[in-house]
Specification:
heterodimer, A: about 180 residues, mainly alpha, Rna Polymerase Sigma Factor, Chain: A, Arc Repressor Mutant, subunit A, about 65% helix, about 0% strand, elongated, disordered C terminus, B: about 240 residues, alpha/beta, Hypothetical Protein Ychn, Chain: A, 10 helices, 6 strands
């Protein structure tokens, strides 16, 4: 690579990396549903991308290369997590307050909550296809699984979401109203 | 008589995700036109696909990850860029890919994709056109299609209720910036009383919060709570939905 090519490539790399950050964040958020974790994942991805920039041979593949790094960061994060139950994640009967029920009215929340209940492998494939529009072959490369597994995970994910969001009675899901409880 | 072929869910997923070749897409497209059940299956998958996209559009990206000079970088949707869209008509929806029929206007596509049940209601058609990009080319497509439909229905005995919904970067269409497409939309609004223009309140709030700007909207623009809520509400009321 001559110096001119190197400078051009470096500039394109930086520009594309900056442009990709919001997209990386949204996908990371769809995997973990926690703003701080998504923030860290994207930050790690950016650092690793800059450190390993020389390993990217084809600039046209930069997007899928970045998402592959993000997928690796996510895998590392999951490995680091000890299998403990966070007290804040436990569902108690009294947790379902009118305020929370009101919050759930928002369709965006309902959809995101439904996605959060999917197994992480399905969630990962679903967001790469639906949010980023990657082909099945690209997703297979990013996540490191066969294309057939991509298709079956995607199918199971959409089926589960369809059952949760579309096939239940609308008044119970997408237009759920606030429930008022009587406290004795 | 059209022979019914069984399609697996995986195959239909591949269809809506644009993973099939042209011949396979055309085959499914043809089958969708003749098979209401298949049409419903495709529509259901497409609806899930769309709900997912819309649900994450409003995710707030931390300042340090925001691209420079970008209001809110939208996700790259290949089907979106390739001008594909879906059309859902209540519970019996028709769906068609713009890629395979790019020469047709929306009117033609909508007409062929109406299922028999929907055709009965074709005299009174309620249609939502949704735009979430600021690309002038796309904004003009929305206006072209809206104008064609409004003109056609104005000259016939049939009734049309048309709503243009803008969110994310698509709010450029309804912002009073003096652009050609803003003027065109204003002219259409003045000319046709059956045209409603709505804008996503969440997008406006986000801009106000992150940029401290209150956007000046075109007159007669209605602010709705959120684009996804409005889209679901309209579809539940039997509106057709086209995302451009």
């Amino acid at each position: 690579m001559n110096p001119l090519e190197f400078i051009c490539r470096s500039s394109t790399f930086k520009k594309q990396l900056a442009e990709m950050r919001p997209r990386l964040y949204k996908v990371a958020f769809s995997w973990c549903h926690a703003a701080d974790v998504a923030d860290d994942l994207v930050q790690d991805t950016v650092i690793k991308a800059i450190r390993n920039a020389s390993s990217l041979r084809d600039m046209k593949k930069m997007n899928s290369w970045l998402f592959a790094i993000l997928a690796n960061c996510w895998r590392d994060y999951l490995r680091r997590q000890k299998p403990t139950d966070d007290i804040d994640e436990c569902i108690f009967t009294d947790d379902d307050t009118p305020e929370l029920a009101q919050e759930r009215q928002n369709i965006t929340d309902i959809v995101q909550q439904a996605i959060a209940t999917l197994p992480q492998g399905q969630r990962q494939v679903l967001s790469l296809v639906d949010l980023e529009g990657f082909s099945y072959a690209e997703v297979a490369e990013i996540v490191g699984i066969p294309a057939g597994t991509v298709m079956s995970r995607l199918n199971r994910a959409r089926k589960a979401l369809s059952e949760q969001l579309l096939e239940l009675k609308e008044e119970n899901v997408l237009t759920r109203g606030t429930h008022i409880r009587v406290v004795k | 008589m059209h022979d019914k072929k069984q399609y697996s869910d995986e195959h239909l997923n591949a269809f809506i995700d644009d993973q099939l070749d042209t011949a396979e897409k055309a085959e499914i497209l043809d089958a969708v036109r003749h098979d209401a059940e298949l049409s419903q299956r495709v529509c259901k998958l497409q609806k899930i696909h769309n709900l997912i996209q819309l649900s994450y559009e409003s995710v707030e990206v931390p300042e340090r990850h925001k691209a420079i000079n970008n209001l809110s970088q939208p996700a790259k949707f290949k089907w979106f860029a390739a001008a594909s869209f879906f059309l859902a008509i209540g519970s019996v929806a028709g769906w068609i890919s713009h890629q395979t029929m790019s020469s047709d206007s929306l009117i033609n596509i909508a007409q062929v994709s109406h299922t028999p049940a929907a055709k009965n209601n074709a005299e009174n058609w309620k249609l939502m056109l949704h735009v979430s990009t600021a690309k002038p080319q796309r904004l003009n497509i929305v206006l072209d299609e809206a104008e064609t439909l409004l003109e056609e229905y104005a000259n016939s005995s049939r009734k049309l209720e048309l709503e243009i919904l803008a969110n994310s970067e698509g709010i450029a269409l309804v912002t009073n910036n003096g652009k050609d497409y803003n003027k065109r939309l204003q002219t259409l609004q003045q000319k046709y009383t059956n045209l409603a223009v709505t804008v996503c309140g969440q997008t406006l709030n986000r801009i106000q919060r992150t940029q401290g700007k209150t956007l000046k909207l075109l007159p007669d623009t209605t602010v709705v709570s959120s684009a996804v809520n409005q889209m679901v509400k309209r579809q539940q009321s039997g509106w057709s939905y086209i995302r451009i």
